Every structure is written in C-alpha cells, then in structure tokens.
Amino acid sequence: MSDSHTLRRSHGWLAAALVLVPLTAANAGNVTGTLTLPEGVKPGQTKDGKTDETATALVWIEGTEASPITPQVPSDTVTISQKGTQFTPRFSVAVVGQKVDMPNDDNTAHNVYSKSPTKSFNLGVYPKGESKDVSFEKTGRVDLLCSMHRQMSAIIYVVPNEHFAKVGEDGAFKIPDLKPGTYTLKAFHKDCGEFSQEITVPEQGDATATVALTAKK
Ligand SMILES: [Cu+2]
Fold first, then answer.
1. CA 104 to centroid of ligand 1, rounded, Å
2. CA of 141 to the centre of ligand 1 (A)
3. Domain that holds residue 106
C-alpha cells in the first residue's frame, strides 16, 4: 500500500471520530423552569425591592438510585473576598470538596467563622494580603460571619455536584447538559422551606419545572 493510501485511510478514521462527537453531545438535556417566592418577592431582592445577594435563589440536581451522578470536584476555586468591611460576593455556591478561598483585601483585620451545622469553623484573625481557605464535606447552607464586624455576613450553599444554577431576578433558571434520566430537583432560598421534586430529562429535548417556594415554617 502506498503512503497516500495510508494517509487517506487515517483521514477516514478521523472523520468517523468527528461525526461521533456531536451525536454524544446531543444526547443531553437541560432542566429549565421558573421559580417563584412567597408574596411575589423576586430572587436576589428584599421584600421592598432592594438588591440583596444573600436572597439569591438556587436550584440544583441530585442523582438518584436509578440515575446516579458521579460528582466531580471543580478544579477552579470559589473566592469570597473581605473588602470594604463586607464579604464579596455575599452569596456563593461551592461543590462538596471544592476549595473556597477567603482573601482579606481590606486594610483592617478580619476573623471569618461559621457556626452552621453544615460546617463549623474559625479561620482566626488575619491581615490584608493574607488568605485562608476551607472546603466542605457535606451539602447545605453555611452562614459566614466575622467576629470583628457585626455587619459582615454571607451565605455559601454547598451542593453535591456541578449541576446547579442561580435563578435570575425574573425567576428563570437553566441547569444545562444532563444525561437522560430521572433526578431530584432541589431549590434553596434563605427565607424559604426545603423544596424537592422528581424531574425526568427525556431522551430528546429538555425538562421543564415549576418551582414554587413557600415561606419557612
Ligand atoms: Cu471583619
């Protein structure tokens, strides 16, 4: 066989491989939907319509026995800065095991801690330019506080995997790229009770969900 024949044959294999990629990618659906809060409050806002990051609404997907999800710890780091005597941002999402960096970018010292059941920790006092980090072993809400500044507060919500989305101010959300299967859709808002609903991503197309959160009892 001549060299040109070998070349053409290897190109044939390459073309076959390229055709397979879009077929695999197409076999994943999005979970889209709308979330509502009690009394018409918008996600990310206070009851009187002011911006409040800690009032962000979050949705995420959990695997089930029938459709398990193998969690992958994201290699990128979540960063929560201490700046202007406040946390920036004041709402963050971390996957179990993901590193959360907490740099002090202020001219004053801070002492970040949490007493949340999800994880209780105290990073101690550290000055500008220094950073400490934490990661979380289980899912749930973590309230960040500073023992030196009472006005400082932030929420980290720890989710089991990368399939999550923050809800827009209009209530719309989209969790992309799930394999067909039946999962559990969950939602969080600091003032609302827990939400859990079965959701099926079909072989073709997207799944849609309506999430109506109710006030915490
Ligand atoms: Cu502080």
1. 9
2. 20
3. 78-162
